[in-house]
Design a protein that fits this description.
rod-shaped, 157 residues, 3 helices, mainly alpha, 0% strand
Length: 157
């Protein structure tokens, strides 16, 4: 939605410019130096500059957002492949004794890795579903990935 707001601002700025041209054309026909004509000329000029600045700044911001969206879409499949490998590695560690210390407890480092995985996955899913910024986070990056449940890992043998 944030991206689309800037697109709307571009069109709003262009509408201001067209409105300023309309005001100028309407009052150019009269060719009078009355106070109302001078007032409308000044207002038309102000509206013109507001429109130009609104369209220009919004256009630059929307272009940068579009570049970011394209980069995110291009790299989404690679990010998903990396995430699948990280997930498989964490699940494999849980199935082996590599996560246990000499006393049979699960290593704190492994718990921290799983917690970081779960937090990152939850954050990415929330961002991709967000109304305002969801367009910047492709859903397919987290598609098919699951949280690692601590209940399935025996903390002590």
């Amino acid at each position: 939605m944030l991206f689309w707001l800037f697109i709307i601002l571009i069109f709003l700025g262009l509408a201001f410019v067209l409105f300023a041209f309309w005001i100028e054309a309407k009052h150019r026909k009269k060719q009078s130096n009355s106070a109302s004509s001078i007032f409308f000329d000044e207002v038309g000029e102000i509206i013109y500059y507001i429109g130009i600045w609104t369209a220009g700044i919004s256009g630059v911001i929307a272009a940068l957002m579009l570049i970011f969206i394209i980069c995110q879409q291009i790299s989404a499949d690679g990010k998903k492949a990396v995430n699948e490998q990280v997930y498989n590695g964490l699940v494999y560690k849980a199935q082996t004794e590599a996560i246990r210390d000499e006393f049979g407890f699960v290593n704190k480092e492994y718990v921290d890795e799983v917690q970081a995985w779960n937090q990152n996955l939850a954050k990415y899913r929330a961002y991709s579903q967000n109304f305002w910024i969801g367009i910047f986070y492709p859903e397919r990056v987290a598609e098919g990935l699951e949280f690692i449940d601590f209940d399935n890992i025996r903390m002590k043998d």
